[in-house]
Amino acid sequence: MNLSTDTRKTASDLGPFGLAKRGFRRGTIALGKAVAMTAATSLLAIGFNAARSKHGIDLFARAPYDIYTDCPEMDTNIPKLKVSRIKAGNRGLVVVDARPAAVYLAGHIQGARSMPMYGTRPNAPGGLSYLRKMRGRFIVIYGQDQMQSAVHLASYLRQHKVRGVYLLDGDLDAWKKAGRKLVAKALGQVDASDLVGSSGPLYVDARPPEQYRAGHIPGARNVPCDGLIPPDPKQFATLLASKRPIVTYGVSEVDEELAEPGTDTKPKDVGRLLAAELIALDAKHVRWLRGGTDAWKKAGGKVVQSPTGEPKGAQP
Amino acid sequence: MSERTLAGWVDRLWNHKVHNVVAIPLRLWVGVIFLAAAWHKILYPAKFALSIATYQILPLEYINLLAIVLPWLEIIAAITLISGLWTRASALVMVGMNVMFIVALSLAIKSQTQMTSCGCFSADAEAAMKTIGWDYVYRDIQYLAAMVYVALFDDGWLGADGLIGHLRRRHA
Fold first, then answer.
1. How many pairs of residues across A and B have Cβ atoms under 8 Å apart?
2. CB B128 within 8 A of CB B121
3. How do the domains of chain B map onto residue ranges?
4. What is the mean predicted confidence (pLDDT) over A192-207?
């Protein structure tokens, strides 16, 4: 029985059961049309967004919204370990540095693992699962006294079921006072003149997406990194796993209209920040291009504009 | 079975043409509001995405996708609803969106999420600067009720659906 003949029938023809059946059929057809409308509209919206050069946004992005996740509550009952308990070569210890990656590179406790703590979470792909496996060991966190980064990270780890978390009593200041040494890690940099015309490295633009889209090195990927919120975990993990040499760049301009009064509005070398994050987590062949796109253009390199998303051929 | 049976009365009430007349102002009311609401969001999806993020409900990875698709869905559903094309389907889409808004607002209010705007009519959360409250939920419940009525009782007789049906019958 098709719907048109069904519609013409009266209640007496159909009976209560037939009426219910007709209502159900009409509902199903309307629902099918609603689903089709939603699917077609979604495709239209995604296509329109991809074609927009100025106001289009990436389909999937996590990093810009990390700030909206809840910060871990500070745990005031974290036990502390004295500096004297930390001995080189002690396999029962895992030492973790909670400070920003660039500070970690400048000087850290030998063997310490970098896990820079941001407002909401640390930037450490795989770090949480690694520490969960360290059962029976002392996980000792240190940072900088006034920044509270160690307490913050330790609280986060305990809330995420990592056991055996301790703070280093007195933080790094106590370590230095005890005359213990720190080791540094080099942050390799490269000049634009050495790169222009060469092929091979994977360029990674660390600026916000809108600045990346306005002009970037051809083939560069965009992994925003501003030092305030951690880089996108998936994009960052992809870079860590990359076998190609990586060159990070980007000098981020701060929008003075959006900046809070009294905050620093100087341009920030976010390319350096991203390189530090990668090197601190043992990424190989990572260098930082000083001066960003300005230096690149001065050296004769060209920049291209891009609508949304990643350019083709930028796979790591 | 006589037309005077309960089923007969229900059928006559359900399919009475007065519903098509009553539904027109409801379709216009909700349709125009959704058209107005969608415009700014389509122009500035990044700002709208930030408004969605403040709800802290959706997994962060999918915020952009929703910010891109939702305003278009609002605009297409509003146009079809006003014109009476696929009336029931567009009303169902509106029902789905309003249920989503009501749930999101209720959760945000209940968990005392700090928000300055619901992001409903302006993509720019800071521009609106009105603290969200239960009045927003009541407003969306009114839209929901109107759209449920249209989905149940309006077969699009006074609209493009009716016109298409009329032309088809003439050709047949």
1. 114
2. yes
3. 9-171
4. 83
Q: Residue B116 in contact with residue B88, Cβ under 8 Å?
A: no
Same-domain check for residues A190 and A169: no
Asked, for residue A31, whether it belongs to a domain, the answer is yes
Residue A315's pLDDT band, with cuts at 50, 70 and 90, is very low
Is B101 within 8 Å of chain A by CB?
Answer: no
Domain presence at residue A199: yes
The answer to whether A255 and A261 are in contact (CB under 8 A) is: no
Does A85 lie in the same domain as A149?
yes
Domain match, A202 and A274 both:
yes
Q: Specify the pTM.
A: 0.62
- CA nearest to A295, candidates A276, A277, A272, A278: A272
CATH of the domain at A286: 3.40.250.10
Chain center to CA of A20: 53
Residue A256 is given by DSSP the state T
- Gap between the Cα atoms of B39 and B76, Å rounded: 11
Nearest to B86 among A15, A37, A59 (CB): A37
Contact list, B88 vs chain A (CB under 8 Å): 26, 30, 33
Report the domain count for chain A.
3
Partner residue opposite A66 with nearest CB, options B60, B77, B92: B60
Report the C-alpha gap between A259 and A225 in whole angstroms. Answer: 17
Dist. CA B140–CA A85, nearest whole Å = 61
In chain A, which residues have their Cβ closer than 8 Å to the Cβ of B72?
A: 41-42, 44-45, 48
Q: List CB contacts (< 8 A) between B43 and chain A.
A: 55
Q: Specify the 3-state DSSP secondary structure of A257.
A: coil
Domain range holding A79?
68-177
Residue A59 within a domain = no
What single string gives the DSSP state of each residue in A168-195? ETTHHHHHHHTT---B-----EE-HHHH
Q: Which helix (H) or strand (E) holds A246?
A: strand A246-249
Position A195 in a domain:
yes
In this structure, the answer to whether residues A132 and A190 fall within a common structural domain is no
The answer to whether the Cβ–Cβ distance between B11 and A55 falls below 8 Å is no
Is B45's CB within 8 Å of A33's CB?
no
Mean pLDDT of the region B76-99: 95
Sequence-ordered list of residues with C-beta below 8 angstroms from that of A120, at least 6 positions apart, any chain: A66, A67, A69, A70, A71, A72, A229, A230
Higher-pLDDT residue of A104 and A227 is A104
Question: Residue B71: its chain A contacts at CB < 8 A?
Answer: 45
Pick A57's closest partner by Cβ from B1, B5, B46.
Answer: B46
Residue type, A147: M
Residue B29, CA distances (Å) to B39, B74, B151, B162 in order: 16, 14, 15, 20
User: How high is the ipTM of this complex?
Assistant: 0.88
Note the pLDDT tens digit of each residue in B134-156.
888 999 999 999 999 999 999 88
